[in-house]
Write a structure and sequence with these properties.
The structure holds two protein chains of two kinds. In chain A, strand 5 and strand 6 form a beta hairpin. Chain A is mostly beta strands. The chains are: A mainly beta, B mainly beta.
């Protein structure tokens, strides 16, 4: 399977600070990146979709100014949680999409657990 | 609207028992369905997938799932569970246009030795 690297795996921050999460596809080019969020004891919910070189598309209820997504290259996408608050504490997971013959196969990063104090 | 539902939220089994986890979907058009497993502290792993063809799909670790179009179901089965199968299981459907996944609420499986 494809290799996806997501960092950091766990971050604790103070309320009001910003946190950047990186997601890299190490052995393929990701034309599309999905970012999911998983609250405790809940399922994964899609937050946003980004295509390389374009602005991200956010799902309803997700604040685009709070969750900044950058997909500047085919192997790297970042999610920045700006002015984090305790309610943003969650598990964030990236999922790069490789397209082509494997267009319906999803790969996932190991996730980032964000705890906002 | 596309949706995926899992009705079993928490299942407790003894080792060697048979497993069936329910998954129902509501999709229009082409259906791509998946089962993922999430072991404690680990990332999602793909167990199996259905795109088309044989409705009985075999995956890793002895799991299988059957796509029944008339029932809008894609239940996950394993004839004999092991303690190591203790994990969270997610059914998911893919929007073939956007390629994003819609996940079910998950089923926590606890296998007792």
């Amino acid at each position: 399977g494809a290799v996806v690297s997501q960092h950091p795996s766990w971050v604790i921050c103070k309320s009001g600070t910003s946190v950047k999460i990186e997601c890299r596809s190490l052995d393929f080019q990701a034309t599309t990146m999905f970012w999911y969020r998983q609250f405790p004891k809940q399922s994964l919910m899609l937050m946003a979709t980004s295509n390389e070189g374009s602005k991200a598309t956010y799902e309803q209820g997700v604040e685009k100014d709070k969750f900044l997504i950058n997909h500047a290259s085919l192997t790297l996408s970042t999610l920045t949680v700006t002015s984090a608050h305790p309610e943003d504490s969650s598990f964030y997971i990236c999922s790069p999409h490789r397209g082509g013959l494997a267009k319906n196969i999803q790969y996932f990063g190991a996730g980032t657990r964000l705890s906002v104090l | 609207a596309q949706s995926v539902s899992q009705h079993n939220h928490h299942v407790i089994l003894s080792e060697a028992a048979s497993l069936e986890l329910g998954c129902n979907y509501s999709y229009g058009g082409t259906v791509n369905l998946f089962w993922y497993v999430q072991y404690p502290g680990q990332h999602l792993q793909l167990l199996l997938k259905y795109f088309s063809g044989d409705p009985l799909v075999k995956g890793i670790k002895g799991f299988e799932a059957e796509f029944i179009k008339s029932k809008f179901s894609f239940n996950l089965r394993k004839p004999s569970v092991q303690w190591s199968d203790t994990a969270e299981y997610f059914c998911a459907g893919m929007d073939t246009g956007r390629r994003a996944l819609t996940f079910g609420s998950g089923t926590r499986l606890q296998v007792q030795p």
